[in-house]
Amino acid sequence: MEIGPLAPHNGDALLRFLAAVPASDRTFFKEDVADSDAVERWAAGPGRRGLACDAGEVLGFVAVVPLPGWSDHVGEIRLVVHPDHRRAGVGRALARWALVQALDAGLQKLVVEVVAEQEGAVAMFTALGFDAEGLLRDHVRDRDGELRDLILLAHPVADQWSTMATAGLDEALQQE
Ligand SMILES: CC(C)(COP(=O)(O)OP(=O)(O)OC[C@H]1O[C@@H](n2cnc3c(N)ncnc32)[C@H](O)[C@@H]1OP(=O)(O)O)[C@@H](O)C(=O)NCCC(=O)NCCS
């Protein structure tokens, strides 16, 4: 598996990946992924977007998108792994890549929104040095219209280099 920035040649593979992502998970992109212009739009948009690929197929997508205005020192992570390739370390590798990108981009803080029931995602980000900073009750509606709590996890990128090194990010940096 290789992780790198989204590039124009990823177009077809990215569309196959997007088609394979269940509708319920598409909300995590927080961007319109319905058409073939997604690659160009994403490549031109703010922030950094990366793909995990194996033999030309996309296994996962991550974005680090700066918040607007007075929070532009904060980046938001959006992370989705192909449903057939979960629990194989792809999400953790992409989250590490995102942390390295945030550091390189000079961001001071990273946040990610996770639905409270997704204990696996919470565990993954917590292991990488994220902490819960907020709980938004009944903040999102699932496909059945049920209200769900949203947890806001945050990582003080700039302050916690030692934590990142502990999480293996020093190795990720060396591979960059
Ligand atoms: C959350 C998500 C990105 C995890 O990706 P993944 O590739 O399956 O995660 P990894 O295999 O790297 O797992 C890393 C760790 O996270 C935890 N974890 C991840 N998924 C889990 C699950 N379903 N149940 C329990 N623990 C889980 C485990 O601790 C795991 O380590 P382990 O396998 O050594 O036990 C993936 O499930 C996904 O795309 N979900 C939908 C979108 C989403 O929720 N995005 C997060 C917010 S933007």
Properties at a glance:
176 residues, Aminopeptidase, seven-stranded mixed sheet, 7 strands, 33% helix, globular, binds coenzyme A
Q: How many structurally independent domains?
A: 1
Topology, number of strands: 7
* Structural class by secondary-structure content: alpha+beta
Main sheet record: 7 strands, mixed
CATH topology: Aminopeptidase
Strand order of the largest sheet: 1-2-3-4-5-7-6
Give the overall silhouette: globular
Q: What are the distinct ligands in this entry?
A: coenzyme A
Mean pLDDT: 87
Number of H- or I-type helical stretches: 7
Overall CATH architecture: 3-Layer(aba) Sandwich
**Radius of gyration of CA atoms, rounded to a whole number:** 16 Å
How are helices and strands ordered from N to C?
A: EHHHEEEHEHEEHH
CATH superfamily: Gcn5-related N-acetyltransferase (GNAT)
Fraction of residues in H or I helices: 25-40%
CATH class: Alpha Beta
* Low-pLDDT regions: none
- N-to-C span: 14 Å
Task: Describe the structure in your own words.
With 176 residues, the chain is α+β, with helices and mostly antiparallel strands. It has helices spanning 11-20, 23-26, 38-44, 90-104, 119-127, 161-166, 169-175; strands at 2-5, 48-54, 57-66, 74-81, 109-115, 131-141, 147-155. It has a single domain (2-175), classed as Gcn5-related N-acetyltransferase (GNAT) (Aminopeptidase, 3-Layer(aba) Sandwich), CATH 3.40.630.30. The chain is built from 7 helices and 7 strands. The protein binds coenzyme A (COA). The site of coenzyme A (COA) has 20 residues, from β4, α4, β5 and α5.
